[in-house]
Amino acid sequence: MMWHRRGLNRYLLLRLGVLAAAVVFASSALAGAQEKQPAAQPITDHAHLATDALPFAPGEQLTYRLLWWGLPAGKAVTKVSETNEHNGHLVWKITSTATSSEVVDIIYKVRDQVVSLFDPALRAPWYYEINQREGRYRAKRTITFDQEAGRATYVKNENPPQIKVIPTGAQDAISVLYYFRALKVEPGMTVTIPTLPGKKLHHVKVDVLRRETIILPDLGRIATLVVQPHMEFTGIFRKAGSVFVWLTDDERKIPVRMKTAIIFGKVTADLVEGRGCRKAPKRPGEKKLPPGEVCKS
Question: Is 165's pLDDT higher than 90?
Answer without folding.
Answer: yes
